Backbone:
């Protein structure tokens, strides 16, 4: 380490009076400075004078490194000049190095000469007169000093290597102030220079002064010189005393200092390495860190470690490396803490001696030889164990006041304690524990190590452990030696230990005794916990929970179940093995036992000590309607269930639960709730998420159980695991989606509804959310095509994967056609059936509605006079069918209607229906006097035609027959059966002949085809009608007329017969009105039956 | 780090047991050598500055030159003497270390205890092998442990000296394995242990 120094400059003084500047080491104590002499004479130091004084390496020439001057140095710290009056000095002044020199002059006067700090501007100029004055002054002063200040003698050095302290003693006479200078001998580097006040040691008669070195004293040799001072006067320097370092040539090996030093944590330590001869210094390492080293001498290098941390047990290594790899030197430094204790207390165990304890606090990091040593009341309590730090010390008697002193190399720490013995009793652990064991209790006994405890009031804790649980019980007594432990459990392993304390002035619990173990005796079992499950069919199970070890009180050997009727005192007992926990019953088969009365099952457990008390449950439940189940919400503590209870109720409750989906012989669990409770929280390790559980609350389970309340709930609702069973159907343009409700097992939660989606590619579009749990949905308005629908059920946890159905819409016009055809088919079938019925009943129908028309009664034989009626029809005459709604009896005559065109005729009847002639016929019948049924005028076949002609009559009213050319024109069209022509034929019968031509036979020579078709008809008419042939034989008189008629033939060819008999020979008018009333209905039946007439 | 073979430390087996006495001695010596090597490794882990350092200087324990040409039995007798010296050194190391550092319970201290017991076992074994009526062999160490350790002194010197003792143990345990193997070969006529 470098020793810093302050530069003392006198540059502020006039240059002519500047003597020199002195650089002092920083260790200089300013208080020891000598004030500058008031009459100090300026000393001029010419440069040339330096060369005249040879520099010596001996003590008179001391060197010290001098740093740059400090401008802040206080003025009083400056040794303005060491001017010795009466001395003519010439000084060595050099500005090239940082040393000052003490120049020995011929007069043995010391002048300190600056070599550096003199500024160029202060270069002295010697004045001859001044020099003379100075010389005279110094000479006078020096003469005076030689008289008052003596030179120190017999300088002695005493080094303490461990503390790095140098004790300097000398004989200094009367002086009390001395200047000391300490230099490293080899490099002449000043490590100390100062003035100290030292008194004489009265014992030795010597002056003594101690100096502590920053470096170990072994590092290098130190030179010490002393001189006396009296004010400004000083003596000569004493002879130099040298403290020999370890770097002397005689010690050739590498060394490192300090060795095995113990320092406090956070301190700084300087290590020096003395390199072996002919080796080159390498480095200094602290632990594994290379330190920055400074050279102190030819072989010595030093490095300082700052703020050292605590070392381990074997210390911290400091290594010195040289250029020789095999050469390894080092030292060990121990960095630790001084002791710092706490919690120092003393107590007694045997009521005589003292045991003191304390807490060591932080680890001192000093072990082995360097460990902390302890003294209690100045007795060394340090144990010989090197294993761990000591925390206890024993003193053979009670002293009531104690002082603990802990000492290590870094310091000491002391604590005190005081107390009376009775306040510090800590009993020792009880010994020789024993026990006397029963089923439900045990007695623990122990002994005391010291007989003095027999009169000591003790409080003892007995701690027994069973099944992992610890229980403490406290007992008191003088000299307590036993304790009775009650309320134990049979067949239970117990571990017991005891500790005690003083009952009076309790100080602390003593040490636990060694534990002892015992096992309690056996006893009869506890009553089992019984419940039952009943199915709807009267069967069920009596179930009980297996007895735990704590309930069985010994090995269970079996169970017995007794079914009995309390009213009739009949019973049935079943003996079961110890592994049985349920027995089935069937109430229907126990009718002999119970009838309709209640049955109680009593279960008892048995072990070697006997039978347990019975546990009963009633098997018959009242047949009442199940109360609605409310929802139970699961919480962290289970299903919280609560109910209202009658305040006077004395029965307990049972809450049973099982999976809701189970209905027969279900694995049921239960819990019994004491009477008066109105809530319970149900928790079970068997609860599974997504499973619905049903909870039922029963009252009075052992006597007359009654179901009070029901709940259902899930511990956690999940997404349904199954899917709905979906189907679809087309309804016109609509699609009906139907599905089945999901089973409860698959729903895994309360179903909240269904979501109906339509699929568009991979995307589902929600169509409907059915929150009312409907199981069908109609999607309307779809055209032809394929559609995909998905239905998903959902719970509070979400919706299931869903079921998808694809439906292809078909054209519904086909369905319309099909419906029409179906309707027609049905209608046709009805017509056929009606026809068939009528056909079968035709005789009855004919008889009822269409009796046979009697043959006309002719006054003469028309057949003999048969011949052509030679009446030429007039084209201007016609037989016109007159519509006359009302019968006018006054017009019993044929009315001649002026001839009209066919078109006019057609228009004239244009208001009539075109598809039937019946109204017209009816109207005609209103004018017909004959009440006989009307026959069809146009038979469908020749056979029917003949028949028709035979029976037909013409329901026309001959309003007038004109002999001059009026005629009746028959339609000869072979297609005359066509219905399309019927109205025209019926309504527009035009007789252009102008005369009467009722049965005209349209024979026209020029129109064979018309005649050919007309002849058979006429012949049939003739055959059926008998003597009415003259009407059918008429013909056109002239070709012209024939031709003219020929044009009318198609419309006149209808084989119409005229009921000429009736017409011609009316029976009278008395029946006319009656006939008119029935003619309308009869006409339809007539037509019908005529067509079906065989 | 080589895996160490754990073998219980027992007293010498009675004559006539399965393995030959010389073979058993060789096995013990080899095991001791492995344990000494491990002990040095643990010590270097504590004093890391020793990891790259090879001390100069000769053996602490050395045989006299007269024994070089002697028989196998005589070589084992010399070996026994050297091992006895090593045991004395080890005792001294344990004593000084516990005095200076305290009684610690780390891996190094445990292995140090094992080596001491194994070395004592080997000494008993070699004693049984080569002791004659004329040559009475001692097992207990005669090292008084009162001499200064290596010249530099101080606790750093103790560490260096401990290091040298551990190297000495490795050297002599290896030497014991070889010497005993020679004896085994001569007596049993086979290389197999």
Residues:
């Amino acid at each position: 380490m470098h020793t810093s120094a302050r530069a003392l400059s006198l540059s502020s003084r006039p240059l002519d009076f500047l003597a020199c500047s002195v650089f002092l080491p920083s260790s200089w104590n300013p208080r020891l400075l000598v004030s500058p002499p008031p009459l100090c004479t300026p000393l001029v130091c010419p440069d040339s004078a330096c060369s005249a004084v040879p520099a010596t390496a001996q003590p008179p020439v001391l060197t010290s490194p001098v740093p740059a001057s400090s401008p802040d140095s206080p003025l009083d710290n400056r040794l303005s000049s060491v001017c010795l009056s009466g001395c003519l000095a010439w000084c060595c002044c050099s500005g090239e190095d940082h040393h000052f020199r003490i120049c020995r002059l011929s007069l043995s006067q010391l002048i300190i000469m600056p070599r550096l700090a003199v500024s160029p501007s202060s270069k002295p100029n010697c004045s001859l007169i001044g020099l003379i004055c100075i010389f005279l002054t110094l000479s006078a002063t020096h003469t005076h000093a030689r008289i008052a200040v003596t030179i120190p003698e017999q300088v002695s050095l005493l080094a303490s290597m461990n503390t790095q302290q140098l004790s300097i003693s000398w004989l200094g006479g009367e002086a009390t102030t001395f200047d000391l200078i300490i230099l490293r001998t080899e490099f002449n580097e000043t490590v100390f220079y100062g003035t100290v006040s030292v008194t004489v040691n009265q014992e030795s008669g010597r002056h003594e002064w101690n100096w502590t070195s920053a470096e170990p004293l072994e590092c290098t040799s130190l030179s010490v010189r002393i001189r006396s001072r009296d004010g400004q006067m000083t003596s000569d320097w004493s002879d130099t005393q040298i403290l020999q370092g370890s770097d002397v040539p005689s010690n050739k090996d590498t060394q490192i200092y300090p060795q095995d030093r113990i320092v406090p944590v956070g301190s700084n330590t300087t290590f020096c390495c003395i390199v072996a001869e002919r080796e080159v210094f390498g480095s200094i390492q602290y632990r594994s860190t290379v330190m920055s080293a400074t050279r102190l001498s030819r072989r010595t290098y030093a490095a300082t470690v700052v703020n050292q941390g605590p070392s381990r047990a074997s210390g911290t290594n400091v290594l010195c490396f040289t250029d020789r790899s095999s050469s390894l030197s080092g030292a060990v430094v121990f960095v630790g803490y001084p002791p710092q204790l706490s919690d120092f207390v003393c107590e007694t165990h045997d009521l005589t001696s003292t045991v003191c304890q304390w807490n060591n606090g932080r680890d001192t990091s000093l072990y082995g030889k360097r460990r902390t040593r302890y003294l209690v009341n100045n007795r060394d309590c340090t144990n010989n164990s090197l294993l761990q730090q000591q925390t206890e010390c024993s003193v053979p008697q009670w002293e009531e006041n104690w002082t603990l002193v802990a000492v290590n190399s870094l310091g000491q720490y002391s604590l005190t304690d005081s107390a009376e013995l009775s306040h510090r009793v800590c009993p020792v652990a009880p010994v020789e524990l024993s026990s006397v064991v029963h089923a439900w209790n045990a007695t623990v006994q122990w002994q005391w190590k010291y007989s003095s405890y027999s009169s000591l009031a003790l409080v003892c804790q007995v701690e027994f452990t069973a099944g992992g649980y610890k229980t403490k019980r406290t007992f008191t007594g003088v000299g307590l030696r036993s304790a009775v432990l009650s309320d134990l459990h049979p067949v239970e392993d117990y571990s017991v230990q005891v500790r005690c304390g003083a009952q009076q002035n309790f100080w602390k619990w003593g040490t636990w005794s060694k534990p002892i173990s015992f096992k309690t005796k056996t006893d009869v079992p506890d009553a089992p916990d019984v419940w039952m499950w009943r199915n709807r069919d009267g069967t069920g199970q009596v179930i009980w929970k297996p007895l735990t070890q704590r309930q069985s009180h010994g090995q269970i050997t079996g169970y017995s179940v007794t079914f009995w009727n309390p009213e009739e005192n009949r019973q049935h007992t079943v003996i079961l093995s110890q592994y049985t926990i349920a027995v089935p019953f069937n109430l229907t088969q126990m009718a002999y036992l119970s009838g309709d009365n209640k049955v109680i099952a009593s279960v008892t457990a048995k072990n070697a000590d006997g039978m347990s008390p019975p546990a009963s449950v009633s098997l018959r439940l009242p047949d009442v309607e199940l109360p609605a189940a409310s929802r139970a919400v699961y919480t962290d503590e289970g299903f919280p269930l609560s109910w209202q209870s009658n305040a006077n109720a004395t029965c307990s409750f049972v809450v049973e639960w099982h999976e809701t989906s189970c209905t027969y012989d279900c694995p049921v669990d239960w819990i019994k709730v004491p009477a008066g409770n109105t809530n319970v929280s149900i928790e079970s390790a068997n609860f599974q998420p997504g499973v619905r559980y049903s909870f039922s609350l029963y009252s009075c389970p052992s006597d007359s159980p009654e179901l009070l309340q029901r709940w259902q709930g899930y511990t956690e609702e999940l997404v349904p695991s199954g899917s709905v069973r979906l189907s679809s159907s087309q309804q016109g343009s609509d699609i009906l989606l139907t599905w089945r409700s999901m089973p409860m097992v698959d729903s895994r939660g309360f179903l909240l509804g269904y979501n109906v989606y339509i699929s568009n590619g991979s995307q589902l579009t929600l169509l409907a959310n059915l929150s009312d749990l409907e199981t069908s949905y109609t999607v309307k308005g779809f055209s032809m095509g394929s559609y995909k629908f998905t239905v998903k059920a959902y719970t509070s946890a979400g919706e299931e994967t869903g079921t998808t159905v694809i439906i292809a819409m078909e054209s519904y016009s086909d369905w319309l056609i099909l419906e029409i055809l179906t309707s027609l088919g049905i209608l046709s079938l009805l017509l056929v059936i009606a026809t068939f019925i009528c056909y079968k009943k035709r005789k009855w129908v004919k008889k009822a509605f269409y009796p046979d028309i009697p043959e006309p009664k002719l006054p003469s034989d028309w057949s003999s006079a048969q011949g052509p009626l030679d009446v030429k029809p007039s084209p201007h005459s016609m037989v016109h069918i007159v519509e006359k709604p009302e019968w006018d009896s006054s017009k019993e005559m044929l009315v001649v209607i002026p001839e009209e065109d066919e078109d006019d005729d057609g228009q004239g009847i244009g208001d009539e229906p075109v598809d039937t002639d019946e109204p017209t016929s009816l109207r005609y019948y209103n004018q017909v006097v004959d009440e006989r049924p009307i026959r069809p005028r146009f038979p469908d076949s020749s056979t029917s035609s003949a028949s028709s002609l035979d029976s037909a009559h013409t329901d026309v009213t001959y309003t007038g027959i004109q002999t001059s050319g009026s005629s009746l024109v028959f339609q000869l069209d072979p297609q005359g059966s066509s219905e399309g022509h019927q109205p025209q034929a019926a309504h527009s019968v035009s007789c252009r002949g102008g005369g009467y031509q009722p049965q005209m036979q349209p024979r026209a020579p020029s129109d064979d085809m018309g005649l050919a078709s007309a002849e058979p008809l006429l012949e049939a008419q003739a055959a059926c009608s008998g003597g009415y042939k003259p009407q059918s034989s008429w013909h056109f008189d002239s070709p012209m007329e024939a031709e003219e008629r020929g044009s009318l033939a198609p419309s006149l060819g209808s084989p119409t017969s005229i009921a000429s008999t009736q017409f011609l020979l009316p029976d009278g008018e008395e029946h006319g009105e009656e006939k008119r009333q029935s003619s309308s209905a009869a006409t339809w039946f007539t037509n019908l039956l005529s067509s079906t007439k065989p | 780090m080589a895996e160490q073979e754990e073998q219980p430390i027992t007293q010498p087996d009675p004559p006539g047991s399965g393995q030959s006495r010389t073979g058993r001695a060789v096995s013990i010596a080899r095991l001791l050598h492995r344990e000494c090597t491990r002990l040095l490794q643990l010590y270097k882990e504590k004093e890391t500055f020793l990891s790259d350092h090879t001390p100069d200087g000769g053996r602490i324990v050395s045989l006299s030159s007269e024994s070089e040409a002697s028989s196998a039995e005589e070589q084992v007798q010399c070996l026994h003497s050297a091992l006895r010296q090593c045991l004395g050194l080890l005792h001294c190391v344990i004593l000084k270390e516990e005095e200076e550092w305290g009684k610690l319970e780390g891996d190094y201290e445990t292995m140090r205890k094992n080596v001491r017991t194994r070395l004592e076992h080997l000494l008993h074994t070699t004693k049984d092998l080569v002791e004659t009526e004329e040559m009475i062999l001692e097992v207990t160490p005669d090292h008084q442990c009162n001499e200064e350790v290596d010249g530099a002194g101080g606790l750093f010197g103790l560490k260096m000296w401990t290091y040298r003792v551990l190297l000495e143990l490795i050297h002599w345990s290896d030497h014991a394995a070889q010497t005993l193997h020679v004896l085994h070969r001569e007596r049993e006529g086979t290389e197999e242990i």
User: Anything to note?
Assistant: The mean pLDDT of chain B is 84. Residues 21-46+71-190 of chain B form a domain with the Growth Hormone; Chain: A; fold (CATH 1.20.1250). Helices of chain B lie at 21-46, 72-101, 107-130, 154-188. Chain B touches chain A through 25 residues (CB under 8 Å).
